[in-house]
Each structure stands twice: as C-alpha cells, then as structure tokens.
Write a structure and sequence with these properties.
Elements: E1 4-14, E2 20-27, E3 33-35, E4 42-47, E5 51-55, E6 57-62, H1 78-90, H2 95-111, E7 114-121, H3 124-134, E8 137-144, H4 156-169, E9 176-182, H5 190-203, E10 207-211, H6 215-225, H7 229-235, E11 244-248, H8 254-262, E12 266-269, H9 271-276, H10 285-291, E13 294-297, H11 310-325, H12 333-341, E14 347-351, H13 364-374, E15 378-383, E16 386-390, E17 393-394, H14 399-414
Parallel strand pairs: 1-4, 1-5, 6-7, 7-8, 8-9, 10-11, 11-12, 12-13
Antiparallel strand pairs: 1-2, 2-3, 5-14, 14-15, 15-16, 16-17
Helix pairs in contact: 2-3, 2-14, 4-5, 7-8, 11-12
Bound molecules: zinc ion.
Zinc ion binds at residues 61, 63, 210, 247, 300-301.
C-alpha cells in the first residue's frame, strides 16, 4: 500500500463543497482526503489543532515575472505607464531575469496559499522552469505580439515556430504545461490570432488572451470590425472549445457572454488590476454566471496589482460585485471560496490561532470569511502529496538566494528608468 503523505490530528478541514469537518484527516497523494483511523502508514504525522485545512487557491491570470516591475510608475495613467515604465524595462528582459522573476513570484504564491498559476509572459521555457522548480502547478503561456519582443525579436512567425517546438517537446513535468498566448486583439492582427488558435488546437493546449479590458479596445474593435471583441474572436474562429481563457471581460454584452459559454471558455475576473489602472469597467459576475460562463479569478501581474495574493483578489471581487450591483448578498464566503479555489487538487493549512482568524466560531462561513477578508498565516502547502511549505517556511525554494539575486539583478533592469 502506498504511504500517505500526511495525517493531521485533531484538526479542521473544509472540503471543496464548503463543508466543515473536525477530527483526524489523511491527505492522499492523488489530492483526495479521508478520515484517519490513526493506524495508517504516513510520512508526516502532524498535530493539526492549530490548523484549518482547505483546498488551495488558483490564480488564473498572471504575468509572474512582472514581479520585477512591482511598484513602478505608480499613479501613471495606463498608456504612460506602459510607454514610460513597462515597455522600456521589458526591452532589457533576459531569460535569466524571467526565470528569477517567476521563481520569486511563485514564492509569493506559495506563501499566500496558491498552488496554480495560468501565466502569460516572455521566454516560456524559463517561465516553465521557474514554476517547475517551485513545485506549483502551472500553465506557461508564451506571449505572441505582432511587434518584436526580446523573446521573439523576429516577430510573430518566430513566436509561433518556437511555441510549436516547445509544445511538441513538452515541459517534461506533469504539473506544468505550455500554452499559446496571443497578447490581445489590439497587439495581434487577424492572421496572428488565427495562427495562434490553430497552433493551440494542433497541440490541444490552452489558448490565453486579454479581451474586452478597456473602453478604447472595445470602441476600436467596433470601429474597425463592426462588432465587439468576443464577437470578433468568434468571427475569425478563434475559440478552442474548453481550452480558451480570456482575461478581464469587463465590457461584454449578453450575447458575448453566451458565446463564451457556448465555447466553455474561461473568463478571468481581475478586479484589482482593473481598478488600479482606472479601467472603469469590470466583469459582471451575476450576468456571466447566469449566462453559464466558467468564471475564475486572477491577480494579473504584480505591476498592475502589486500583489499576487489571491485572497485579496477574492476580497476585491466580492467588494466590486456587491458595490456595482447594489447587492450585499453576491459572492457569500462559501461561493467566493469556491470561485477562488475552483479545480484545485491541492491543500493548504492555515494558522487558525492567528489573531486575524479570531473569533472563528464554529461554522465554515465565518472561517472562510476570515481567510479572505482578514488574511491568515499560510502554514503548510501540499501539491501532489509534496510539501512545498511547512510551518510557515517555504521548503521548495531557496528564499535567501532568490532575495539576494533579486536585489542584484534588478539593478541593471531598472537602470535609466
Ligand atoms: Zn494581463
């Protein structure tokens, strides 16, 4: 019989249905859990009386390596922020910086209870390596644009060929996969979008893009194509059924929501990024839910959020949805937690004695609300039966080395900005 990774004694566990259990628990390698009889063969036998065990958080829209840009250009409007801060630094981006930035970002994810990131950035091989080294699950989406980038100086054709090769080879790791990520309809022409979609279908990979983020994008799309962004993507046969993830979706009409549902496309709600950049429009959760769209949460990059903590994103999601719809009943703690952890196969143990979890009462509703609204210490993180974090210390990454490298490496990156 296979050894069970861990037994937590005298603990509390909330499963994916949002139900609270108390007692002794086994967390199995395949991601399932069961009650312990106390005599099983386990690798770790832990006192869980100070812990609350839940499914882990899932971050569906990131640019992990942009942790290197955190705090740059605060207060600038979107276009100046991009032109004066983000684009000039990204011209100096290297493979080494992307791998380092990805690892540093993964350290933040693990420390805040997240075990999955759907990432979109440059140098996909190094993005995947950073995620693999950290032990999280992830999607490494190589960004494609019509203009040359540091990872693809010869433009979109080079990007498509390189991603084709990577997708054929695979990452060599069962938890991390490559994906195709054309940046947006305003940075990719029709041909690039179609070729990206064909490539994703050929390899059955995820197809990731930004869609309907700003009013300008929506208005320009209508002016040029006589239709709105999701209608436009549908008209060029962009969607790959059940494998498309669209970030933002802030300005959708109802028929665009129905199109997203028809293709089982994921819509990624990124409220903090939208509010920080003064976008003015955020996804309508109730309308998207009613249309049957698969909604997920994402932080976006640390440059346009400053945090990769999905608990804060969940809090922002419930705040903006209630505020926008004049309805305090939207996204109650259990529904919010389901949204933030949807699809998770992994586990997190929070410090239930943390003052921010007090008073925790006896029901799951209050416990989950405390995690999301107040933030508790993330003590242990388990992925595939592997312990990425224990007792508040991340085991899978060398934090001293990452911090030291971050200090030195970003000096050149910021030079002249
Ligand atoms: Zn983004």
């Amino acid at each position: 019989m296979t050894e069970v990774p861990v037994r937590y004694r005298d603990s509390r566990l909330i499963d994916e249905s949002g139900k609270l259990y108390q007692g002794d628990f086994l967390l199995h390698k395949d991601g399932s859990w069961s009650k312990s009889k106390g005599d099983e063969d386990v690798k770790f036998n832990l006192n869980g009386s100070d812990r609350l065990i839940t499914r882990s958080l899932q971050n569906w829209h990131t640019h992990l390596s942009m942790i290197l840009n955190r705090g740059m250009g605060e207060d600038l409007p979107l276009q100046r922020w991009l032109d004066e801060m983000i684009f000039p630094t990204e011209k100096k981006l290297t493979k080494e910086l992307v791998e380092l930035g990805t690892k540093a970002a993964c350290a933040e994810l693990i420390a805040t209870g997240t075990t999955f990131a759907c990432d979109m950035y440059y140098f996909p091989k190094e993005m995947a390596n950073g995620m693999i080294d950290s032990g999280i699950r992830g999607i490494a989406g190589g960004t494609i644009t019509d203009f040359p980038t540091t990872s693809y100086p010869n433009g979109p054709e080079q990007a498509i060929n390189d991603l084709d090769k990577l997708l054929k080879e695979g990452t060599g790791n069962s938890r991390v996969e490559y994906a195709v990520a054309p940046h947006a309809i305003y940075t990719c022409g029709k041909e690039t979008l179609i070729k990206s979609s064909e490539l994703a279908r050929k390899h059955q990979s995820f197809l990731i893009t930004h869609a309907s983020e700003t009013r300008n994008e929506v208005a320009t799309c209508h002016k040029e194509n006589n239709c709105y962004p999701i209608e436009y993507l549908d008209s060029i046969d962009f969607f790959s059924k059940n494998k498309t993830a669209l970030a933002h979706c802030g300005w959708l009409k109802k028929n665009e929501m129905r199109l997203m549902a028809k293709y089982d496309s994921k819509a990624i709600h990124c409220p903090t990024s939208n509010m920080k950049l003064g976008i003015g429009g955020t996804m309508s959760y109730p309308a998207m839910k009613e249309a049957g769209v698969d909604i997920r949460l994402g932080t976006d990059g640390a440059a346009s959020n400053n945090s990769l903590d999905l608990r804060q994103e969940a809090k922002m999601a419930s705040m903006i949805q209630r505020h926008d719809h004049w309805d305090a009943s939207i996204l109650n703690p259990q529904e919010l937690w389901k949204l933030a952890t949807k699809g998770s196969k992994d586990w997190v143990a929070w410090n239930i004695d943390d003052i921010r979890m007090q008073p925790h009462g006896i029901d799951e509703r209050r416990l989950l609300a405390n995690i999301v609204y107040s933030n508790a210490d993330c003590l242990d993180v388990w992925v595939d039966g592997i312990e990425l974090r224990h007792g508040g210390i991340t085991m899978s990454l060398n934090m001293d080395e990452i911090s030291e490298k971050m200090k030195h490496s970003v000096k050149d990156y910021y030079d002249g900005i």
